[in-house]
Each structure stands twice: as structure tokens, then as C-alpha cells.
Amino acid sequence: MTTPIKVLHIHFGKDGGAERFFVSLVQALGEKNVEQRFVIRPHRKWRDEIDDLGEIIENHYRRLSFCSLMLDWKLYRLVREWNPDAIMAWMPRAARAIPNWPNAVKLTRLGDFPANLKHFSSCDVLVGNMPGISSHCKSLGWDKPVQTITNFPPDILARPVSRSDLDTPDDVFLISGAGRFVPRKGFDLLVRAVARIPDAWLWLVGDGDERKNLERLANNLAISDRVRFTGWVREPIHYIASTDVFAMPSRHEPLGNVVLEAWRAKVPVVATRSEGPSWYMVNESNGLLVNIDDLDGFVNAINLLKYTSLVHAVVDGGYRDLESRFGKERIVNQYLELLSGNFGLQSFLPARKMRVIIINIAGETARMSFQHKQMESLGLDWERLEAVTPHTLSRPPDHVHWQRWERPMKAREMAILESHCKAWKRVENSGIPHLIIEDDAMLSTDVPTLLDKLEAESGLDHVTLEVRNRKKLVGRHHASLPLRRLYQDRTGAGAYVLWPSGARKLLKRASTRPALADAIICAAYEMETWQATPALAIQMDQCKTYSMIPPIRFVTPPPTPPPLSGRKSGASFHYLSSYPPLSKSITYGSASFVKDCCIGT
């Protein structure tokens, strides 16, 4: 008979989504016969839910206090007598209390981005609940194992609360929001959005320091009669299930457990593009995504679910992704592997296709229509990123910030750079690679195959998919991918794959020395950059060069144009068929683009 794993949990959280996942996980581990002990704050509302799972020590663990000294002594005695297999801290503060016990796996589970690594000196491994947290820890200098294991929602069947319990008519359009009432959750934006939808009602599920401010805001906006505050409830899913739309307007949200509960309740979701939703939500597929603090966008998204049939698609998509990516059994087994000391034998990330970010300026509807068809034909997940314009620059064109490049930049060039910076920031926050394209990019049908291969790759910063008829200095072939190491002329901001590590490097460079987006990428020699071979994208302004007729209407390919610089070019964006040694390795893009390599209209 297998000896049960013994786990000591140290958790100093209060009451919120992180604590609810803590309860769900330890209950699930108990179902797997894991022996557990707990250190928590006194008087937690959820204490009774873990009472039967093992001994509980209550302590505030304040720094340099008698309480903390007593806890250190109790923990040392406990691990010496009980000899746990694993000691699991929840968030950085709890990591300070981990006993230095050599017989146990010591780990910290992180549900947010730590400011530094100073509390983790006793840890063997860190665990983030989304990829961005794991990559952030690496960027801070963490050189031990780090894994990503996401959350699962409570295993509860949604039972809708009667609307009459909160004095709400049955026939009104009802919106819900849930969480701690703190500024970062953005509930003030949700209250303002409801004020802009005349017949909408709002249930705010939770409590916190901002409650009085939210009540005052609702009163000032004259909507107090259609806003209800439930206070803290044990299971928000029952309240969410009674509503027509669930809204999460967070300004900072590392994961957003409550979105998973809304998916389980089959309620459509509108969320901001904060860190967590940007990772697992796909706009118009499993919910609607809106830019942070975008009041107009939030109102429009809610109205879209209210007045169109899109609601059915996002409900079905959310429930599907919940089952495939956030299943309880798989996530519990991943934790069991980790608690047993198995740090690297499997991928802990839910499988998914790489997402595409399409930079599109408002008003360019024809280009966006083409991209919609192209993404649909290629089977790619995508989201539209509204481009910055000269009128929406974060700094005016005459600001000193823009005077640091080798020549004066035009306002349009400033806007293009800021648009790409928005995309880079999104990649950094998500923790996973993305394909970034401008709205005039045309992609080869081979792009999805390459993206599937790149999704699992690590150690890369940037892969460009285009050549723009330029000479490029390249080096060795990649060991397993159709790529070559790219050293000189990284031109091509129209279509490229970017990893979080590359995004951080580009953002750092752009913050100190703004330039053309192309120039920023070209000058970032600190990035490990690769070239797709053959190239797999062109922009519409290159159609003539490749003997194509814009706007992307294909006919029988014309005869191959004259070779570039006297060298023979291949078809379908292939580079030269052979390469000289690295010191002379200058290659050329193809001069033709065959009919069935690109999606047309």
C-alpha cells in the first residue's frame, strides 16, 4: 500500500478568490488521501471548511513579534515530529515562515506577481497560477525550478439565487460583479457602465474597503435603486447564475477565478484585458475583452451581449474551455506530482493554440474584415488591438521623449511605435508568446503549423515571418524548426512572434530611446532573433514586389520577376537554396508568392 503524502500548508491570506481556491485544492488533496496540516490567520470565515482535513495552527505571523517567534518554534517541532513530504507556502509572506527542513519539498504557490525574491530563499520550486507569474520570477533572477499550474473553480452545481431575495425584478437585464471591493478590481468602472445602460441592474457580490465609495458613486449617478450589494457570500456562483452577464472590470487581475465560476454557471463574461483574462480568454470566443478603464468599450461589450446572438457563442466557448483547460482532476494530479518532488517531467500548462494580436486602427474596417476572414480560414485565435493614433498618443508629438532618435519622428511613426508597445506589454503580461501582425499582413497557410511548433519552444525571444525583399545576415539552422538565427537587418514589424522575454527587452529599449518600431526591433541585439525560412508573410504594400494584385485577389502566378541582385530566388518566399558560410551569409527574400500559399478574398 502506498504511503500517503504529507503536506504542511502555510497560508496568511484573508477572504477572497485566492482563499477560495486554497480551500478547493486542499479539499481535493484530501480526497486523494493526502495527509495535511495548516497554519492560517485566526478567525477565517472558511476555517470550518478545512477543519476535518488536519490540525490547524492559528497565527498572525507579524514580523519581529512574539507571535512569529512562537510560530517558528511550533513549526520546527511539527516538522521534526510529523516529518512532512512537502511544505507549501501560499504567497510571499507565508514563504518567510517555511522551516528549513531538508526532508521536505519546499515550495511557494503564487497567485500574483512578487516584487522581489527575498522571501523564497528556503524554496526548492516556485509555482505560478499563470505563465506570466512564472516568467516574471525568472526575470527577477530566480534560477531554480519554476512551474505554472493554473486553478480550477469550486466543484459546485450552480443554483441561481431568487432575484426577489435581493428585491430585483425577474424581467430586468441583470449584471453581476464579484470580488473584494478594492481599487484594483475596478468596480467603480462597472457602476459607471451600468449608469450608461438605462434598464440594467447590478449585483455586486463581495465586500471590502471600497464599499462605501461604491455606494456613494451609485447614489451620485442616481442608480442606487437598481444596484444591490450582497456582502460577503461563501459561494458567489449561485448569485452569478441568476444574472444575464458577469463583468470583471479589474485593472490588475493575475488570474480571475470568478470568471471560471461564471463559465461553469454558463453566464457570458465581459472582462478587461488584465493579466489573467488576456491569457485564457479569446475575444468573441469564450467572452468579450475590453481595454482596462475603457468605459465606452465596457458599455458596448455588455450591450453586444444584450442585443445580439453572440451571447450563445461565448457561453458555449467558456464552458468548453473550462472543461478542457481548467479541469479539477488534471490540476490536482499536477500538484501531486510537484508535491512529490517531480519538478520537470511534464508540462503543467494547459494546451492551446498560440494567439494572434492584430493591430488595427479605428476606421480601417476593410482591413479588419480581411483579417477576420484570414484568421477564420487559418483557424487561429485572435484579438484586435486598437492602434494608437497621433491624437491618442500618451505624450504630445512635441514632447522631449520623442526627440531622442537619430532624426525627428513623424506623429504617425510615434503612434505606430506606441501601438506595438501596447502589443508588447500584452505579451509580457500574458507570459506566453503571441504572433503580432499589423492589419495589412497576409499570412501563408503554413503559419498555423509553425505557430504550433513555436508554442512549446523556450529560449527564443523573437521570430520574424517576413523578409520585405531585404538582404539579411543569418546563421545556423534551428535544430528542429524551419528557422535560421538572424543577426543583421531584422526589418519587419508587420508579422512576428514575440515571447515575454523579448517583449521586456523591447519595452525597455522603447522607454529610453523611442524610434520606429522596425528600428527598435533591429537595434535590440540583446534579443535572440530568428528568421522563418521560408518567410511566411508579406504586407499589402509589398504586393507589387511579389507580382501580386492588391487587395489580395489571387490569379494564376505571373512569371517569376528578374532575380534580385543577380541571385536566383525561389518561390513561395523561400530563401536561396544554399547558404555560404556565416561570414558571407546574406540571403534574399523571394520575388514571387504562389497562389495557394496565402488566404485571399
Structure description:
There is one protein chain. With 601 residues, the protein is of the alpha/beta class. The protein is built from 17 helices and 24 strands. Helix 1 (17-31) links the parallel strand 1 and strand 2. Helix 5 crosses helix 10 (295-307). The protein is globular, with a radius of gyration of 27 Å. Mean pLDDT is 85; it is low at 551-601.
How is the largest sheet built, in terms of strand order? 15-14-16-21-18-22-20-19-24
Q: Main beta sheet: strand number and arrangement? A: 9 strands, mixed
Structural class comes to alpha/beta
Query: What's the Cα radius of gyration?
Result: 27 Å
Give the overall silhouette: globular
Give the mean pLDDT: 85
* Strand proportion: 15-25%
DSSP helix count?
Answer: 17
What distance lies between the first and last C-alpha atoms, to the nearest angstrom?
64 Å
Helix content: 25-40%
Number of strands: 24
Question: Would you kindly provide a brief summary of this structure?
Answer:
By secondary structure, the chain is α/β, with parallel strands linked by helices. The chain contains 17 helices and 24 strands.
Please give a handful of descriptors for the protein shown.
18% strand, 601 residues, alpha/beta, 7-stranded parallel beta sheet, 9-stranded mixed beta sheet, disordered C terminus
Topology:
Layout: E1 6-11, H1 17-31, E2 35-40, E3 56-58, H2 66-82, E4 86-90, H3 92-95, E5 105-110, E6 125-128, H4 131-139, E7 146-148, E8 173-178, H5 187-195, E9 200-205, H6 211-220, E10 227-231, H7 237-240, E11 245-248, H8 257-264, E12 269-272, H9 275-280, E13 288-290, H10 295-307, H11 310-325, H12 328-339, E14 355-360, H13 365-378, E15 381-386, H14 411-430, E16 434-438, E17 441-443, H15 447-455, E18 462-464, E19 472-477, E20 483-488, E21 495-498, H16 500-512, H17 517-523, E22 529-532, E23 537-539, E24 586-587
Parallel strand pairs: 1-2, 1-4, 2-3, 4-5, 5-6, 6-7, 8-9, 8-11, 9-10, 11-12, 12-13, 14-15, 14-16, 18-22
Antiparallel strand pairs: 16-21, 17-23, 18-21, 19-20, 19-24, 20-22
